[in-house]
Design brief:
Elements (H helix, E strand, L loop, with lengths): L15 E8 L2 H11 L3 H4 L1 H6 L9 H15 L11 E7 L8 E13 L6 E11 L5 E12 L5
Antiparallel strand pairs: 1-3, 2-5, 3-4, 4-5
């Protein structure tokens, strides 16, 4: 479900929004890891095969970055987002491998209008990434600030 404009008032606790999907290649996995997380099981095929993962896997930070891209493309780019004060939790539940397709959903868990700044509110959410087999590979819980709908 995509709305033209998302304001604080549009986020309803319990509402889940599908944000689309994205596939990842081994070339992307290695390129990201070489720059940001060069652990052997992310960048070295031989070492990765000998690791507990049995092959190259995406960095958890790469998984989070792919999730963020879907959140921005499908939600934040058409919202009154004012940024985020932070995350409460990230869980990497299963490895992401070359050829996986991640689908991401955004669940609104709580909303609170600001008492001190009437032009905004805080939205708590849980983002979930599942692979093509329907397995949950990553969850992110956090909060974002959104502008209130302007008076008509």
């Amino acid at each position: 479900m995509k709305k033209a404009n998302w304001y604080f008032e549009d986020f309803v606790p319990g509402e889940e929004i599908s944000l689309g999907s994205r596939s990842v290649s081994e070339t992307e996995i290695i390129a990201f890891a070489e720059q940001f997380d060069p652990q052997p099981f992310h960048v070295d095929r031989v070492a990765a095969t000998a690791s507990i993962f049995g092959g190259v896997i995406a960095s958890g930070w790469h998984t989070c970055s792919m999730m963020m891209r879907l959140v921005v493309d499908s939600l934040m780019s058409e919202s009154s987002s004012m940024g985020s004060p932070g995350l409460d939790g990230v869980r990497w539940l299963l490895p992401v491998r070359a050829g996986d397709t991640l689908s991401v959903s955004y669940l609104t868990t709580k909303v609170k209008a600001s008492a001190s700044r009437p032009d905004r509110g805080v939205v708590w959410s849980k983002w979930t990434a599942t692979n093509q087999r329907g397995e949950v590979v990553c969850t992110i819980e956090g909060m974002g600030m959104f502008g209130r709908r302007p008076d008509a």
